[in-house]
Every structure is written in C-alpha cells, then in structure tokens.
Design brief:
The complex is a heterodimer of chains A (about 80) and B (about 450). Chain A has about 80 residues and is an all-alpha fold. Chain A has a single domain (about 5-75), classed as Non-ribosomal Peptide Synthetase Peptidyl Carrier Protein, Chain A, CATH 1.10.1200. Chain A has 4 helices and no strands. Chain A has helices spanning about 5-15, 25-30, 30-45, 60-75. Chain B folds into 2 domains: about 5-335, 3-Layer(aba) Sandwich (Rossmann fold), CATH 3.40.50; about 340-435, 2-Layer Sandwich (GMP Synthetase, Chain A, domain 3). Chain B is built from 13 helices and 24 strands. In chain B, the strands form 5 sheets. In chain B, strands 1, 2, 7, 8, 9, 10, 11, 12, 13, 14, 15, 17, 18 and 19 form a 14-stranded mixed sheet that branches. In chain B, strands 5-6-16 form a 3-stranded antiparallel sheet. Classes of the chains: A mainly alpha (about 80), B alpha/beta (about 450). At the A-B interface, α3 of A face α7, α8 and α12 of B.
C-alpha cells in the first residue's frame, strides 16, 4: 500500500472523529489527537517525533503529515 | 469580599501589573477592571439571572465572566464545543430556575447517575477555594500561572480565583495541542511560574517534551494535577524531570470544591495520596468507606433539583462516590470509586449517556460503552455494538453521529461488533460482567 494510504488507515483507526481529508487538519485535532499521531508514527516508522514537530504547518493536511514522516526517514 | 472586589482593589493597588495574557493580547489590572465595568454596561443581565457562556480561551471570556458577576448575574460556563442544540436546551432550562442569593456560577458536571447536573457555586465558595490554594500550594502575588485547560471545569477555573485575589498574573494557553505554544508561555520574564495539568497532559509532555520540561526546572515553582488518577510511573518521571518543583496531587470536585493536596515530590511519591485537608476544609470517611467533605468550599446544591441535592448534601456535608481512607498522619488516600462513571483524561463520562445516543443510530440494536486502557488518557471509551440483521457498521459515521449529539470527549475511540450485550435478570446492562471478563478494566 502507498505510504499515504497506510498512514491514513493507521490514523483513522485511532482517531475516528477526525476528517483526514481536511485542508485544516490541525484545527480539527485536539492535544490527544496530535499526541496520538506523533506516537503512532514514531512507532510505525521508527522515527523520532517530538513536541517541536507538532506545528500547525506539519499538521495542516494529511499530505503534510506524510511529508513530515518522509523528511524524518531521510534524516534518519 | 467577592473575587470581583479583589479585582477592583488590585486595580487600585497595582494598576500596571499584568493581570491576564492570552496570545499577543495583554491586560493590566487597571485595564481589566475598567473593561469589566464597560462590559457590564452593555450586558443587560439582571441580578440573579443565569447566563450561559461558551468557555472560550480568551481574555474576553474572563471580562464577560467578571462583568456578569458585577451585575449580580450568575454565570454558567459551558463546554465550548457543546452542540448548539444542547447549549440552547441548557440555556432555556436555566432561564426557569431561581438560585439562592450569593450564587456566582453554575458549573456542569457528570455525576454517578450520568445526567449532567448544574452545580451552584457561591461567591464565598470561590474565595474559600482561593484561600485553600493560596495556603495549601503557595500561590503568591509574584506568581505567573499558566492556565491551559477548559474554563468551564473547576480544575482550570479555580486557578483564576487565587491569582486574581492576590494580584498575580494569568497566562491563558489554548490547550496542549500546540505544545510549542504551551512552552512559549514559560518564556515570560518571571522567576516564579506554575501550571495545572490533568494526568493525560502530563503523559503527553513526558512522551513528547520531557527534555523541554526539564529545562524549565528552576522556573516552574509548582505543577498541580487532579481530576483523574495519575500513574505512579508518571509521578516518578515528573519528580526526576523537575527535582526542585513542588508537584501537587489534589482532591477536588465541583461539588466539594478544593479539599486537599499532596506534594508528591517529597522523596516518597505515594500514588493515590491526596494529602491533608486545606484550611477551609475537613474530610471524614463514612462507614461505607466513602469520602465526605465539610467546610466553606462546598457547593450550594444542584440548580433546580432539591432531590438530587439532598442525595449528596445534608447538614453541611457533601457525600462523594469516592472510596478513600485517612492514614495515621491525617493524609487522604483515594482507593476507588463507586458507580459506573468512566474517567477519560479528567472528563467524567456516564456510559448510559453514550449508549442512549448510540441506540438512536440506524441499525444499532444494542450496545454497551465500556472503558479500556489508553496510553495517554489512562482510560478510553469503547463501544461494543450489536447490529440489526447483521448489518455492517460504518464506524466513522457512528462516531460523527455521536459527536453531533455529545461533547467530543464522550465519543468512543474504539468500536467493536458483538453478538449480544450481557444483561442482568431485570434487563439492565451487566456492567460487572464487562469489568470482570476482561472486556473492560474499569475499576
């Protein structure tokens, strides 16, 4: 499965109320949502995601979340 | 004296002192006092009238809150994402009610029975809570307190009381979603800062920003937690990250007010310990092992419901549903809770309310809402559903449907299809079965 769909499935499972197609994803999330996303993605892709990554820019859309993961994977 | 009288007094004594900061907005005591007076002129609220307000994280909310009090009106701060229908319903119901003199606020809470109840808080209770916190935790005029939680709950709202009473400074942060924003609040040029974090928020910070928190070790004078049980692992982590900070676990509820507090950064770090009663409070344990509270911080009753009031408040004692004991040093220990209410990250949810809402969703035949372990909130809600004629469940549609009926924290995170719901002989859901069978771990 493509990475984006894989991430979508993972996050939709954990956060059923969130519309991951939204262009204003950050405003849809609460602190629990942001933390859940960071924790799930750190675990799944073995990358280090921290509070500094929880910016409105990184969480604007599902694509920006995917980009953040891609960036972290490259940084290793 | 009411809190608003202290505000006026502080505006005269320290006019240029920062009172409230929220984002790039700031208000000194003189400005706050003046804006409260100006707002009061525009509100047209009458003495004794109950006014519902959405508890939005803004200076404006506080100005309206104080202004209504100055007019003698009563404020009912409500969940800011509360569905419009519920907001209007509560407003209409409250219009019919009369409160005794001296009532300042009506705070909504979920009791053991599940229905939301409006708790009447008097002006003198507000001051008594403030005095308890000042005496028990060391709030001071120099303190800058970061409020990051919803102001319709006693946890965060009660922190406004001692800070305004003493002429300290409040920084309002809109939750912990943007942790960068939360930490930015601590850049404020002050040497004495403090905050209140529910256990789920502490979990979030330990998971995502432990080093960042630790770097503030000398700046954070104390952190209070409450509203739900905090795990001993998190208590210990926080003690290690902030060795010089007082870390309080507090026993409080809307009905009892702020009762007791324990600094667990004492080398012993006792889980479940909630310390000694504060100056305006006393605790007794009933024969059934339940915690009962006395003193000036108690509620005045449930609005418009003398029957429910009499069930927990009599002769100046509030009888809670919390099980506890007092040790040989006079410290209170929480041992459990009577009733079915599930505590999700500090928010209390009655499973029946969730089930009632879910049963009105098409094709759901039966359901039960239970609690399961959750890595951040401690507990999360799970809905087990029996579908009519083995139809498929659209999980997302159900979650969104529930959100249109309930506050967001009451919407379950996890959904599971099951063949039948276990009931007792008289048709009630057999909640004990779900607790004992390992389906749920609600204790």
């Amino acid at each position: 499965m493509e990475k984006k769909e894989c991430i979508r499935q993972l996050l939709e499972e954990a956060l059923p109320l969130v519309d991951f197609d939204s262009d204003f994803l950050f405003s849809e999330l609460d602190s629990l949502g942001v933390t859940t996303i960071l924790m799930l993605l750190s675990e799944k892709y073995n990358i280090k995601l921290e509070s500094t990554d929880a910016t409105p820019k990184n969480f604007k859309t599902l694509d920006s979340i995917v980009n953040m993961v891609e960036r972290k994977l490259v940084e290793g | 004296m009411t809190l608003e009288d202290y505000l006026r007094q502080n505006a005269k004594q320290w006019p240029d002192k920062a009172a409230v900061i929220c984002g790039d907005q700031q208000c000194t005591y003189a400005e706050l006092d003046q804006r409260v007076d100006e707002r009061a002129k525009t509100l047209h609220a009458e003495c004794g009238q109950i006014v519902c307000l959405r508890a939005i994280c803004s200076i404006d909310f506080l100005i309206t809150y104080f202004a209504l009090h100055r007019l003698g009106a009563i404020v009912a701060p409500l969940e800011r994402d509360m569905p419009e229908e519920t907001f209007n319903q509560i407003s209409a119901e409250l219009k019919k009610q009369n409160c005794p003199d001296d009532i300042a606020d009506v705070l909504y809470t979920t009791g053991t029975t599940g229905q939301s109840k409006g708790v009447m808080i008097s002006h003198s209770t507000i001051v008594a809570d403030a005095e308890n916190l000042i005496d028990g935790q060391g709030f001071s005029h120099e303190l800058v307190f970061v409020i990051n939680g919803p102001l319709n709950h006693i946890g965060s709202l009660s922190k406004v009381y001692p800070v305004i009473l003493l002429g300290g400074t409040i920084i309002m942060v809109d939750g912990l979603k943007d942790l960068n924003n939360f930490f930015k609040a601590f850049d404020y040029p002050a040497s004495r800062m403090a905050t209140f974090l529910v256990p789920a928020s502490i979990r979030i910070i330990i998971q995502l920003a432990a080093e960042r928190l630790s770097s503030l070790s000398d700046k954070i004078e104390f952190i209070e937690t409450g509203a739900a049980a905090i795990s001993q692992a998190d208590m210990k982590s926080l003690c290690q990250l902030l060795p010089n900070t007082r870390l309080y676990n507090t026993y409080a509820s809307t009905e009892t007010g702020i009762i007791s507090t324990y600094n667990y950064n004492d080398g012993k770090c006792v889980a479940g310990c909630l310390g000694k009663p504060m100056k305006n409070s006393q605790i007794v344990i009933t024969e059934e092992g339940l915690i009962a509270c006395k003193g000036k911080t108690l509620m005045s009753g449930y609005v418009g419901d003398s029957k429910k009031t009499a069930a927990i408040l009599s002769d100046g004692v509030v009888y809670t549903s919390d099980l506890g004991m007092i040790d040989e040093c006079g410290m209170l220990h929480l041992t459990g809770r009577k009733g079915d209410v599930i505590n999700v990250g500090g928010f209390k949810v009655a499973p029946t309310e969730v089930e009632d809402a879910a049963l009105s969703f098409p094709d759901i035949q039966d359901c039960v809402c239970i609690s399961v372990d959750h890595v951040i909130t401690g507990k999360a809600l799970k809905l087990m559903v029996v579908m009519k004629d083995s139809k498929e469940l659209n999980r997302k549609a159900l979650a969104l449907y529930l959100k249109s009926k309930l506050e967001a924290y009451k919407v379950p995170l996890i959904y599971e299809i099951t063949d039948k719901i276990e009931r007792t002989f008289n048709g009630k859901i057999n909640r004990k079965y779900y607790i004992n069978s390992g389906h749920s771990d609600c204790s």
